[in-house]
Amino acid sequence: MPLLEIDNLHVCFDTRAGTVQALRGVSLTVAPGETLGIVGESGSGKSVTAQAVMGLIDVPGRISDGEILWEGKPLAGFAVANAARDIWGREITMIFQNPMTSLNPLMTVGAQIAEVIEVHMGSSRRAARRRAAELLSAVGISGAERRLDQYPHEFSGGMRQRVMIAMGIACEPKLLIADEPTTALDVTIQAQILELLAELQEKMGLAIVLITHDLGIVAGLCHRVAVMYAGQIVETGPVDAIFENPSHPYTQGLIRSTPGLDADEERLTAIDGAPPGLLQPPSGCAFLPRCPIGDEGCQGPQVLRAVGAGTVACRKAGEQAWREAV
């Protein structure tokens, strides 16, 4: 049984201009111990998917359809039963893109980590502080006892992200959602954070959902990948299969626009055009206006179907004509 199942999830945001359909039928699964990468352009619905799982969709947003299951049980049911604390923050945790805006600048780092342990684990203040020091050491911060009494602004960007990771693993969760965890960091620190996540996963048996726009990170850390476009999943599959033989024209475009060490081209190949607005999303393939091989037959709804080792929402996936076009 997968840890997390998302089935036909629809999320809307009511605005003055109309209803934005941020997610349109997203379905995903996450197995114990695996790393699932979610990639796509800004606005494709990656972060909204994570926020829905964590119960963070607030007014004017709402889940209009679909289901989120945790270990086979509806996640919404935990909230109704007033048991959300036992799931969110304990079994499912999340670290965000910018740790400086996620940490409270008026509280010491130690107090913030200890608070998580006290609330979710019922530990005493003294035990929680001791555990907080252990966690800081575990994520590679030296002088942990001294660092507990410092404030977020006294830490570098990379160290603040380590603090967020320490908070995320404080209750030994089963699933960690990392939303763009390395975007604001330089390349060297990025590598250290990713290495830390991999080490923690191996030690703790964590499942990780990694949200990113960096395909290089996905290639190095993830087992499976889900490609999102305009609020929908357009392709899923094992990482090796996606990179070696992408089936959707959008996935191919993402890979062709990513620099590589062995690339011979002087310039990267960009994807022409822009994603559609989601106030009135297209009824057919959302990628059609930007697709180099689309035709009139693509104007109807595109559903995920099995192609090779994964699934793809493209009627031309696997056709020889597609291979010649790309």
From TrEMBL:
GO terms for molecular function: ATP binding; ATP hydrolysis activity. One of its GO terms (biological process) is amino acid transport. This is ABC transporter, ATP-binding protein. Belongs to the ABC transporter superfamily. Keywords: Amino-acid transport, ATP-binding, Cell membrane, Membrane, Nucleotide-binding, Plasmid, Transport. Residues 4-255 form the ABC transporter domain. It is found in: Cell inner membrane. It comes from Rhizobium meliloti (strain 1021).
